[in-house]
Write a structure and sequence with these properties.
The complex is a heterodimer of chains A (about 325) and B (about 500). Chain A folds into two domains: about 20-210 and about 305-315, 3-Layer(aba) Sandwich (Rossmann fold); about 220-300, no CATH class. Helices cover about 35% and strands about 15% of the residues of chain A. Chain A contains eight helices and ten strands. In chain A, the strands form two sheets. A six-stranded mixed β-sheet of chain A has the order 3-2-1-4-6-5, sandwiched between helices. The longest helix of chain A is centred in the middle third of the chain and has 25 residues, at about 115-140. The two termini of chain A are about 35 Å apart. Chain B contains eleven helices and 23 strands. In chain B, about 50% of the residues are buried. The chains are: A alpha/beta (about 325), B alpha+beta (about 500).
Chain lengths: ~325, ~500
C-alpha cells in the first residue's frame, strides 16, 4: 500500500468544529494514549465492537489515535442473532464507510441448539451467546489484548476494574488479585495464552459519552432517538415489537409508543424508555434530570447485585 | 488556614430537594444561584482526588454523601442499595452508603474495602474522579495506587478522636506520591455538639503535621457526612461559627497537578508509517510544549532534529502542550522507536545508568536486594537491578537503614541499568519521573517508584560537594522548608534549631 499525504489532506474537512472543552479533551487524550500503548506493546489486539453508543465513541477514538494510518487491528462483533435489526444495518454501513476490518462471531453451539432468550432465560442465554461466544472468538483469533468500551461509572464491580484488566488463559478475571496500576504506566507483560482487556473509556461517564458524541458529531444507531415505535410490555419492560420472532403471549398487545433506548443490547432483553428526545440536546437534557441509571433497562443486571461481577469473572467483558 | 478559596464564590447546585422514598433532604442551608438552569460550559479539567481514612472515620459515608448530594446516584441504584442494606440503615433513614462503594462480593461479605474504587461526580462547575482507597494498614499499596494520579487528598478524621497515627501515615504517603493539596475533613462534628474549640485544636495539629511534610495548601472543614453538613450543602444552621468553604467548594477551586516543570517531553509510544511519504511519532506530551520549528533531541541516541508538523485527526496544529496526544513529524530521517523520548534541546532530562529513587513495595514477596526487575516508565521498558538502602518508618516519619523491603514498605533504592536510562526528578515531572517495577518471574507489578535524582557515581558518596550553611529566622525557614522543591529533598538537608546568639557564635567560628 502506498499512501501519500499532501499537506492539504492532513486537514480534516470536519475540523470546522469548535475545540473540545478541557474536560472532554482530557478524557480523549487519555483514551488515545491507552489505544496507542496497547497497539505498541501487544502482538495481536482486537477491539470489541457492540454497535452501541460507547462502541461508537470507542471507534471514533481509535480512528483518531492511529490517524493518518488505518486502525491497526480488527473489530470483533459478538453477535447473538437477537440484536435490533437497525443495529446490524448501522454496523454494516459504518464498516463500509470507514473501511474497517470486522470479524462477526455467533456461537455455533448456541445457534445449533437454538438457544434463545425466550427458551433459555436471560441468564443462560447471555452466558452462552455472549460470554461463551466471546471466549470462542478470542481463542479463534489468538488475540492477546481486547479493547472494550466499559466504563467504571456503569456498575459497582466495574468501578474496581483496571484499565489493563488481566485475564487468565481461560479468560477469567480475579478481582481479588488485580495488578496495581499506578500513574498511566500500564503493565502489559503476559505469558502465552494470557490476555488483557483494555478499557480506554474507564473514566468516562454516561453524560461525557453523549457530550462527546455531540461535540464530535459521531454517528449512532437511530434507536437512541425518540420515535413512535411498536412495543409490548413484558416483565415491566417495554420491548420493541418489530422482529417477527417475538411471539405475543396471552394478554400481551402490541401498541405504538413514543420511545427511545438508553442502552442497546439484545432486543428481547432491552427495555425502552418513554421519551420525546429527538436530538442530542434533548438526550443530554433528559439525562441530566434522569433519576435512574442507564443499566436499569438491562434485564441481565437485575438478577441480584453482584451479578455483573459474576459474569465478568467468567469472561464476560 | 484555608486555601485561597473565596467563600463568596457561588456554587451552582440545583436547589431541588430529593424526595426519593424515605430519604430525607439535607438539612443545611442551600446556596441558590439564579443561573443554575443554564448549562455552563466546563472550563477546567477533571480534578482527581483521593480519600484517606478508615471505615470508622466515616469515609464511605462521606463519599456516598458527595455522590448523593451531587445526584451521581440514581434511584434504581438507591433501590438496590436499600435492598442490600436492609436492616442496616442509619438513624436518618439514609441508605448505607458504604455498600454503594464496596462493589465486590468479598467486600460486602467482610464489610471492608479491599481495593481502589473509582467514583465520578460533577457539579455545574467541574467534574471529579475519586479514588476511594482502603484505610487499613495492610492496604498501603492501594493508597499509593490511588494517590499516584491524584491532585488532592482528603484526609478524614473523627472529630471525637482527632489525629491518629494513621493520619500521619496517609499524609506521608500522599506527600511522597506528589500530592501538595490537602483537605482535612473533621467528620462527625455533630457528635461533639459542633464544638468549635475541638475543631480548631484538630486543625492546628494537622497544620503542624502538614508543614512537617512540606505541604502548605491545607484547608480544614468541620463536616457531618451523615447529615450532609459542609459537604455539598453548607452547615451554617448548625455551625454559624464556621465561615469557610464547603468541601465541594474547595474541590471546585483546587488546581490540577502542576508537577510538570520540565521542558518538552514526548515518550514515543508508536511509530506511524501509513505510507512511504509519512513517518510520525505518536505519544502523549509529558512535559512542556512544542511547536513547528522547535529543535529536539531523540534520547537515548542523542540525534538532533527539528519539528516540522504536529498532526492530529482534527487538524495540523501549531502547538501542543502537556497532556496532548499527538503525532510529531521531524525534518529528517532519524532512528526513533517505541520507548525513546523526544525532548527539548535546551532542557533535557538526566541520562545515565544509575539513579536514586523512592519506591513503594506492592506485593507479598517485597523487593529483594539486587534482584533484576523490568522497569517501565512511560513507554520504555528496561532491565534494572534494585538495591534497597533505607526504609521509612511511617509511625515516626524517620528513615532507617534497610537492605530489603517487604510489602507496603516505602524505601529508598539505588537503581542500576544495563543500558542508558533517562528520567526527570519526580518532583519536577510526575510522568517522566515515575516508574513501575515488574517481576520477570510473575509478570506482576511489584513496586511503584519515583526518581529523586541521578547518581553521579556508583559509590554515591559526595563528600567533596559544596554545601551551604544558612542562618535565618525560624518562621522564614519554616516557609522555605515547606516549598515543593525542599519537600522532595528533605533527606539531603540538615536542620538544627538554635538561638540567634549561638548561630552567630558558630558562624564566627567558621569565619575564623
Amino acid at each position: 500500500m502506498s499512501l501519500t499525504l499532501p499537506e492539504t489532506e492532513l486537514h480534516n474537512p470536519q475540523s470546522a468544529r469548535p475545540p473540545l472543552d478541557p474536560h472532554l479533551k482530557a478524557l480523549e487524550n487519555e483514551a488515545i494514549h491507552i489505544f496507542r500503548e496497547v497497539a505498541g506493546e501487544f502482538e495481536k489486539p482486537v477491539m470489541l465492537y457492540s454497535v452501541g453508543k460507547d462502541s461508537s465513541v470507542l471507534l471514533h477514538l481509535a480512528r483518531k489515535a492511529f490517524y493518518p494510518g488505518r486502525i491497526p487491528f480488527p473489530l470483533l462483533h459478538v453477535n447473538t442473532g437477537w440484536k435490533f435489526a437497525e443495529m446490524i444495518a448501522f454496523r454494516d454501513e459504518i464498516v463500509e464507510r470507514y473501511d474497517l476490518d470486522l470479524i462477526e462471531h455467533i456461537n455455533p453451539r448456541g445457534a445449533a441448539e437454538n438457544v434463545t432468550p425466550f427458551t433459555h432465560g436471560s441468564a443462560l442465554y447471555t452466558d452462552i451467546m455472549k460470554t461463551e461466544g466471546l471466549r470462542q472468538a478470542l481463542d479463534a483469533g489468538g488475540f492477546d489484548a481486547a479493547f472494550g468500551g466499559a466504563r467504571r461509572d456503569e456498575e459497582a464491580s466495574r468501578a474496581k476494574e483496571r484499565i489493563y484488566s488481566f485475564r487468565t488463559p481461560d479468560h477469567r478475571w480475579d478481582p481479588r488479585n488485580q495488578r496495581p496500576e499506578l500513574w498511566n504506566v500500564y503493565n502489559g507483560m503476559i505469558r502465552k495464552g494470557e490476555s488483557v482487556r483494555a478499557f480506554p473509556l474507564s473514566n468516562w461517564t454516561e453524560v461525557d459519552i453523549w457530550r462527546y458524541i455531540q461535540a464530535e458529531e459521531i454517528p449512532i444507531v437511530p434507536l437512541y432517538f425518540a420515535a413512535d415505535r411498536p412495543i409490548v410490555e413484558r416483565d415491566g419492560m417495554m420491548i420493541l415489537a418489530e422482529d417477527p420472532r417475538l411471539e405475543l403471549q396471552p394478554g400481551e398487545t402490541k401498541r405504538q409508543e413514543r420511545i427511545r433506548f438508553r442502552t442497546l443490547g439484545c432486543f428481547p432483553l432491552t427495555g425502552a424508555i418513554r421519551s420525546s428526545a429527538t436530538t442530542l440536546d434533548d438526550i443530554i437534557t433528559e439525562l441530566e434530570t434522569a433519576t435512574v441509571s442507564e443499566r436499569q433497562g438491562r434485564a441481565i443486571d437485575r438478577d441480584q447485585s453482584g451479578s455483573m461481577e459474576k459474569k465478568k469473572r467468567e469472561g464476560y467483558f | 488556614m484555608t486555601v485561597s478559596a473565596s467563600t463568596g464564590s457561588q456554587t451552582t447546585l440545583h436547589t431541588a430537594a430529593r424526595t426519593t422514598g424515605d430519604i430525607k433532604a439535607p438539612t443545611g442551608n442551600v446556596t441558590a444561584f439564579a443561573g443554575a438552569e443554564a448549562r455552563a460550559p466546563r472550563d477546567s479539567r477533571p480534578l482527581r482526588l483521593i480519600t484517606c481514612g478508615s471505615v470508622d472515620d466515616g469515609k464511605s459515608t462521606l463519599i456516598g454523601r458527595l455522590l448523593w448530594d451531587t445526584k451521581a446516584v440514581k434511584e434504581d441504584q438507591a433501590a438496590t442499595l436499600a435492598r442490600d442494606s436492609s436492616g442496616k440503615q442509619n438513624d436518618l433513614g439514609l441508605p448505607d452508603f458504604a455498600l454503594l462503594l464496596d462493589g465486590l462480593q468479598a467486600e460486602r461479605e467482610q464489610g471492608i474495602t479491599i481495593d481502589v474504587a473509582y467514583r465520578y461526580f460533577a457539579t455545574e462547575n467541574r467534574s471529579f474522579i475519586v479514588a476511594d482507597t482502603p484505610g487499613h494498614e495492610q492496604y498501603t499499596r492501594n493508597m499509593a495506587t490511588g494517590a499516584s494520579t491524584a491532585d488532592l487528598a482528603i484526609l478524614l478524621v473523627d472529630a471525637r478522636v482527632g489525629l491518629l497515627e494513621q493520619t500521619r501515615r496517609h499524609a506521608t504517603i500522599a506527600t511522597l506520591m506528589g500530592i501538595r493539596q490537602f483537605v482535612l475533613a473533621v467528620n462527625k462534628i455533630d457528635l461533639t455538639g459542633y464544638d468549635r474549640a475541638r475543631f480548631d485544636a484538630i486543625s492546628h495539629d494537622f497544620k503542624e503535621l502538614a508543614l512537617s511534610l512540606g505541604v502548605r495548601q491545607v484547608t480544614a472543614i468541620p463536616v457531618s457526612a451523615l447529615k450532609g453538613e459542609n459537604v455539598v450543602y453548607d452547615g451554617r444552621a448548625s455551625m454559624p461559627w464556621y465561615e469557610g468553604p464547603t468541601l465541594v467548594e474547595v474541590l471546585e477551586l483546587a488546581t490540577v497537578r502542576s508537577g510538570q516543570t520540565t521542558g518538552f517531553r514526548l515518550p514515543v509510544q508508536r511509530v506511524s508509517r501509513p505510507g512511504e511519504s509519512f513517518r510520525g511519532y505518536q505519544g502523549t506530551v509529558a512535559g512542556g510544549s512544542v511547536k513547528p520549528g522547535d529543535s529536539v533531541v531523540v534520547l537515548p541516541s542523542g540525534m538532533v532534529a527539528n519539528v516540522t508538523k504536529i498532526v492530529t485527526f482534527d487538524l495540523v496544529r501549531n502547538a501542543a502542550v502537556t497532556g496532548d496526544a499527538i503525532t510529531l513529524v521531524l525534518d529528517r530521517q532519524v532512528d526513533v522507536s517505541r520507548g525513546d523520548m523526544i525532548v527539548a534541546i535546551d532542557s533535557q532530562p538526566q541520562t545515565g545508568v544509575a539513579f536514586d529513587a523512592q519506591i513503594v513495595a506492592l506485593q507479598p514477596d517485597g523487593i529483594q536486594p539486587n534482584k533484576r526487575y523490568w522497569l517501565k516508565s512511560g513507554s520504555r521498558r528496561q532491565r534494572v537491578s534494585v538495591e534497597p538502602v533505607s526504609q521509612l518508618d511511617l509511625k515516626s516519619g524517620k528513615w532507617g537503614p534497610s537492605d530489603a523491603l517487604s510489602m507496603n514498605a516505602i524505601g529508598k533504592v539505588h537503581l542500576a541499568f544495563d543500558e542508558q536510562a533517562m528520567f526527570d526528578a519526580y518532583e519536577q515531572n510526575r510522568t517522566t519521573g515515575a516508574f513501575i517495577l515488574i517481576d520477570p518471574d510473575t509478570n506482576n507489578t511489584v513496586a511503584g517508584g519515583m526518581i529523586t535524582g541521578k547518581r553521579s557515581s556508583l559509590g554515591g558518596i559526595h563528600t567533596d560537594e559544596t554545601r551551604v550553611l544558612l542562618s535565618l529566622p525560624a518562621d522564614l525557614a519554616d516557609r522555605i522548608l515547606a516549598s515543593d522543591l525542599l519537600a522532595g529533598r528533605r533527606d539531603e538537608l540538615e536542620v538544627r534549631r538554635i538561638s540567634a546568639a549561638r548561630a552567630q557564635d558558630l558562624l564566627d567560628t567558621l569565619d575564623g
